[in-house]
């Protein structure tokens, strides 16, 4: 499941603001703010969570699930050229 921390971390990797994510996902800015806050995405509709995930993945983010190695996280799909 997508976490508030993953959303914030993915935005940081991309250099996106909350309004950038709202625009890319089609989810309202107040919803983005709420999903990144203490409430997290758990109370959001499945459609909003999917829209956020899809927007981040389209931008090049892989959302990592919690596993035996560690908690949920994010990374780029491929190495960035410097």
- The CATH class assignment is Mainly Alpha
Task: Give the total of domains.
Answer: 1
The neighbouring-strand order within the major sheet is 1-2
CATH architecture: Orthogonal Bundle
**How is the quaternary structure best described?**
single chain
List keywords for this structure.
single chain; two-stranded antiparallel ribbon; mainly alpha; 82 residues; 434 Repressor (Amino-terminal Domain); 10% strand
In brief:
By secondary structure, the chain is mostly helical. It has four helices and two strands.
Structure description:
- It is a single chain.
- The chain has a single domain, classed as lambda repressor-like DNA-binding domains (434 Repressor (Amino-terminal Domain), Orthogonal Bundle).
- The protein contains four helices and two strands.
- A two-stranded antiparallel ribbon has the order 1-2.
- 24% of the residues are buried.
- It is mainly alpha-helical.
- The mean pLDDT is 91.
- Helix content is 49%, strand content 10%.
- Strand 1 and strand 2 form a beta hairpin.
Secondary structure elements and pairings:
Blueprint: H1 4-14, H2 18-25, H3 29-36, H4 46-58, E1 61-64, E2 73-76
Antiparallel strand pairs: 1-2
């Amino acid at each position: 499941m997508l976490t508030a921390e993953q959303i914030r971390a993915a935005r940081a990797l991309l250099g996106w603001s909350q309004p950038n994510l709202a625009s890319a996902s089609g989810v309202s800015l107040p919803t983005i703010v709420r999903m990144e806050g203490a409430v997290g995405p758990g109370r959001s509709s499945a459609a909003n969570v999917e829209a956020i995930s899809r927007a981040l993945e389209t931008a090049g983010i892989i959302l990592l699930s919690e596993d035996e190695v560690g908690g949920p996280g994010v990374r780029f799909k491929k190495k960035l050229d410097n």
